[in-house]
Amino acid sequence: MKFNIRFATQQDMPKVLELIKELAVFEKEPDAVIVTEQDLIEHGFGKHPLFTCFVAENDKQIVAIALIYFRFSTWKGKTVHLEDLIVKQDYRGQGLGTLLLDEVIKYGYSQGVQRVCWEVLDWNTNAIEFYKNKGAKILENWYLAQLEGDAIKTYIQSINEGI
């Protein structure tokens, strides 16, 4: 099968959102996605873009994406964070994940990054093996910490009450 990897455009965001929702179902959180097409357009293509997205096409149909953004590591400096690498179920196992990861690594390298990082669910053994086979180090002693939605509001409220 022939795949075309390219930078995403604003017009791709409906398909990108479909893949994000497909990933949420796969990760057993089908109702967790609150981002909209408009959010993706505004934050990916506005005055100060927050992310870059690569898409993979087969017969002009988007079948996979890799969404990345820059961050800064106090130890390493400029870093690319791979937020998600999503391949439609029917296209897995055909080398498409490798093509997208290759593109992310090449892009990061061209931008002078010292690290490319991402998270992977501990039960997603296929992804873990895929990344290990690419030379990635899986940090098993680290926990991912997040504040979301109501937890952010509660935190702000506790700050304001302390004033």
Question: Can you offer a commentary on this structure?
Answer:
The termini are far apart. The protein is built from 5 helices and 5 strands. Helices cover 37% and strands 23% of the residues. A hairpin with a 3-residue loop joins β3 and β4. With 163 residues, the chain is an alpha+beta fold. It is globular and about 60 Å long. The chain has a 5-stranded mixed β-sheet. α1 (13-26) crosses α2 (37-45). It has helices spanning 13-26, 37-45, 96-110, 125-133, 149-161; strands at residues 4-7, 52-58, 61-73, 77-87, 115-117.
Write out key terms for the chains shown.
alpha+beta; acyltransferase; 5 strands; GNAT_dom
What is the gist of this entry?
Helices cover 37% and strands 23% of the residues. The protein contains 5 helices and 5 strands; from the N terminus they run E-H-H-E-E-E-H-E-H-H.
Helical content stands at 25-40%
Portion of residues in beta strands equals: 15-25%
**Got a strand count?**
5
Given as residue ranges, the uncertain stretches (5+ residues, pLDDT < 50) are none
Strand order in the largest sheet: 1-2-3-4-5
Ends apart, CA distance between termini: 61 Å
Helix vs. strand class:
alpha+beta
Keywords: Acyltransferase, Transferase
Organism: Mesoflavibacter profundi
Domain N-acetyltransferase: 3-153
InterPro entries: AcTrfase_GNAT_prd, Acyl_CoA_acyltransferase, Diverse_Substrate_AcTransf, GNAT_dom
